[in-house]
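Cross-check.
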Amino acid sequence: MPLSLTEEQTRGLNLEYVSSSRLTWVYIERPTQAEVDFLARHFPQFHSLNLDDVLSRVQRPKIDEYEDHLFLVLHFPVFHKEARITAPSEVDIFVGEDYMVTIHCNGDLKPLSSFFKACQASEEMRRNYLEHSSGYLLYQVLDRLVNYCFPILGK
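Predicted model, tokenized:
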């Protein structure tokens, strides 16, 4: 049974979510301590050090494996047109049997935000991506992020 959230629980927080009968995807952009406190309350299985990592601006890529979930820290290149430089952008992901939490500090990974908003807006998208396993949803997110990298890496 996926996590059940209400607008009242998330009011005033910088997070959004979308649910299906199988999964809940929690999407957090530019997290603050309030969002980390929310995660600690609603996901008590998350290790406190991983929650600290969410607010840390410089984390090395890693995967921490726990009995009931994974915690991933991944970096993807983002090209900044004005400065004409490529810089890494971090995504933190918690994934368990019936949920996925994505946390992104900069808001500059368009494929992540676009995919989430599409799943939020479209019943068909929810059916196609959230009615499968959390591993399938994770794959879809990572596939979009990796494909986003190819044109950037060619610059």
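The beta strands are 15-19, 24-29, 62-65, 69-80, 85-96, 99-104. The mean pLDDT is 88. Passed to J.P. for a second look.
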